[in-house]
Design a protein that fits this description.
The protein is an alpha+beta fold and about 280 residues long. The protein contains 13 helices and five strands. The protein has helices at about 10-25, 45-55, 55-65, 75-80, 85-95, 115-120, 140-145, 160-165, 170-175, 175-190, 200-210, 215-220, 270-280, and strands at about 125-130, 135-140, 230-235, 240-250, 260-265.
Length: about 280
């Protein structure tokens, strides 16, 4: 039988150790298997994980040895289920394997009742919960009134960089749209340096590169920029010009990258217009 060399990729080594640790913590009874009288190792045997995952014993052994073999999303999904991984463990395993989880947890850990209440208390200012990739995970009614309701979009389009590049509404309404797109692409590239191996980060860029020639030209500049407060101008069809300062409130070290984004009036006129818009939206009919 031919053998595969052990990979020199540190992620494969880490994935092998992680899978081994998850296997050794699960008792046979938890996996629906009978406990035999004599077991030399804690937890499940490799052949038992292979059986539960419907993969070959030799292939799974190579995976736990850190050998240079390909791991498809479907197979890793089966292994994660066999090892009873929670969402955090699944995300870690798929990140180490460099592939996309086909059943990724859709509930963001930052969207707690407390965070949602805090977002709502900013009324009548627009506010949203976003992750480090600028996905809009939740938004208050006033955000929807000003920028459009994210719930009306397909899940993969609820992203600020995508909307700046692709949305006709954002193109027309945001007076600083061209500058905002360049700035956001530069910020995304800066943040991506710490996530360059993560599929979700690469997939966002790949989709935009395919969909937008304008974005391709911007991305090829390799510009970087820091995250900082800034004032942008919006032309709302009902109340006119709004000048809003974007303020990021980082949630916690445990939820790195998740933030509450508040859009604060930069002048009294904008504050009055937001009040007027909120009152108008609250009137039935």
């Amino acid at each position: 039988m031919s053998t595969r060399p052990v990979s020199d990729d540190p992620r494969r080594t880490e994935l092998a150790a992680f899978l081994r640790s998850r296997r050794e913590r699960i008792q046979p009874e938890r996996a629906g298997l009978p406990r035999t009288a004599r077991r030399r190792t804690p937890g499940l045997r490799r052949e038992e994980v292979a059986h539960l995952s419907a993969v070959g014993v030799t292939w799974y052994t190579w995976l736990e040895q850190g050998r240079a073999i390909n791991v498809s999303p479907g197979v890793l999904d089966a292994i994660a289920r066999a090892l009873q991984m929670d969402p955090t463990e699944r995300a870690h395993a798929f990140a180490l394997a460099g592939t996309t989880d086909p059943h990724a947890e859709t509930v963001c850990p930052a969207v707690t009742p407390t965070m949602l209440r805090l977002m709502e208390t900013l009324a009548p200012f627009p506010a949203s919960l976003q992750n480090a990739r600028y996905d809009v995970i939740a938004a208050n009614r006033h955000y929807a009134d000003v920028f459009g309701d994210p719930a009306e979009l397909a899940p993969d389009e609820r992203n600020c960089m995508w909307l700046l590049a692709m949305s006709d509404r954002w193109r027309e309404q945001f007076l600083d749209r061209d500058e905002m797109l360049r700035d956001l692409a530069a910020k995304y590239r800066t943040s991506m340096a710490e996530h360059v191996a993560e599929p979700a980060w690469k997939a966002r860029v790949a989709r935009l590169l395919e969909a937008s020639a304008e974005f391709r030209a911007i991305w090829e500049r390799h510009e970087v920029a820091p995250t900082a407060p800034h004032v942008k101008r919006y032309r709302h069809p009902e109340v006119g010009l709004l000048r809003l300062e974007h303020r990021n409130l980082w949630l916690s070290p445990e939820n790195s990258g998740y933030r509450l984004v508040a859009y604060v009036p930069a002048d009294e006129e904008t504050a009055e217009r937001l009040e007027k818009l909120a009152a108008s939206a609250a009137v039935p009919g």
